[in-house]
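Field reference: sequence -> structure
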Amino acid sequence: MSLTELRTYPDSDPNTPFARESRRSSCPGCVSKSDFEVSKAQTRKRTKRGTSSRLWEQAKPCWPHLLAIGILALLSAPFGLLLPVPLKLVVDNVLTHHPAPAILVRTLPAAWLHSNAGVLAIAIGILIVLGLLMQLQVLASWVLQTYTGERLVHDFRARLFWHVQRLRLSYYDSKGTSDVAYRIQHDAPAIQTVTIQGIVPFVTAFFTLVAVGWVTCKLDLQLALIALSISPALVLLSRASSRKIHDGWHQVKELDSSAMAVLNEALSAVRLVKAFGRERKEDERFKTRSRERMRGQMHLARAQALYHCLIALLITIGTAGALWVGARHVQSGQLSVGELLIVMAYMTQLYEPLRTMSDKVPEVQASLVSLERAFALLEEIPETLSAPNAQPIHAVNGRIQFEKVSFTYPNGRRVLDNLSFAIEPGARVGVLGPTGSGKSTLLMLLSRFYDPTAGRILLDGIDIREFRLRDLRDQFSIVPQDPVLFSTSIAENIAFSTPSISEETIVAAARAANADEFIRLLPNGYDTQVGDRGSCLSGGERQRIAIARAFLKNSPILILDEPTSAVDSRTEASVISALDQLLRGRTSFMIAHRLSTLESCDVLLHFIDGEVQVVRDDVKSYLRDVARAQGFSFEEPVARLRFPLGEMHCAAD
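Structure field:
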């Protein structure tokens, strides 16, 4: 297959897999409205919902597993109630010769109950069976909890990643990527902690408390009331501590994310850090953030330790009171020694769910804070929304018009002002101007990474906001100034836009970008792993891989942002020669500081301060005049261009 045969638009058909997927919500597998049809009002409405309702929505697909975990956990209550029974049999029926319990008399042969050895064997048998059943319950719970927890984390992370890829570029411009990565990787797993280790144990503890409390009341109502008398104090203590700990965890999480940002910055720019000898400085930055986080963590640890001490003290007081009353009841004949032992065993089981319920509320605060931070990502407004009646694109001619377009960044910096021009289909457009004049902004507006503050952009006479966003972006192939490669093979990087393409087509794209020769010299050829962000390749090699990737997409409109910035003059000439055939019949925009790169363009857009001089005749002569006026040679890269002539002004087409 040749490169010119690749011009297909698989997502134009509403029945294609992507078209069907685009009608799904931001959660893969949950059918809802289109990702791009969610209004701002709906998004703001979701922000008012509590964490509990959003948690239920996220965990709902796993409710059968959570129910099974709860049922298995509830089995611990009857097992716990039966566990003291063998001890009671030994004390009351073997050591002190009390009559056997009625249930044993009705269900077991009388010969087994007439001897101490028989009763002892029964007690041991019950203990062994209970132990076996309890271990089976623990094993089943462990496996089910592990599977359910990991599935919850996987689904939540996938939903977050699906959503953050659709956030506006302005979000990343202001927030960066480190905090987003921290929330997905470190905050999202909190859903497992809250559900599996928080809610399920809390609910199980409640039912266990009811069951054990009822049995204890049947044995001795006064002892049960004494044991439960500390419950109000536990509830008040739990609520007070949870509020304080919750606020503290918010601060710790922010500090943790800040330390991770420093770490990511230093490691991603490790060559620069080494070149300037800034290792010690970056080390101090990281240590400073980490120490702040450590101080916050220690403050929380002290608060939690104090809380646990108070819980233990209250339970000890309740146990002491129950023991005193129980001993008096044995002395008065209201209870036997065996009954006292079983009541005290039940008291221990009664306090265990109380302790669990009291402990879980403050302990889960760290995970609740993490969940709030993760859910906050889902409340961020996605990138530019498509209109409800957005049009599909099957093919475009490539005529582009800017009509009084202005653009201001969220920080207030205005880079384009009342910009108007028209580009005919198949034209080669050179874009020239100093850094910050609006060249890259122009190209981002074309592909709708941003929308104009005022005015409109037309593609074949239709406002680009009326097209489906995915279809619109399929019309563009982009080669950025700083090429981004993924840590996979060279072949996979070239075929990024069309993963199922044939090897022959990948090789054809590489040849067109003059990359085939150096690729074949690598140890594994096209299967060579490029390393993190292409670190195993030189700048020029990365640039040519990015160019080959754009060739392979074969879209009708090409955007080239300094495509030859990282190659030498000889390689540049061969790349431009290869581009010549590919660009024929396609509308293309090329940003370059090296004026010779733009000499084959049909139209030149000369930017400065948001204004543009449109040059259509004798572009090469104009470029030479620019070079002469600024004192540069024609082949030399121009870093800071100014308008060469005082009369240049914004010209509408």
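Note: Residues 1-48, 637-653 have pLDDT under 50 and may be disordered.
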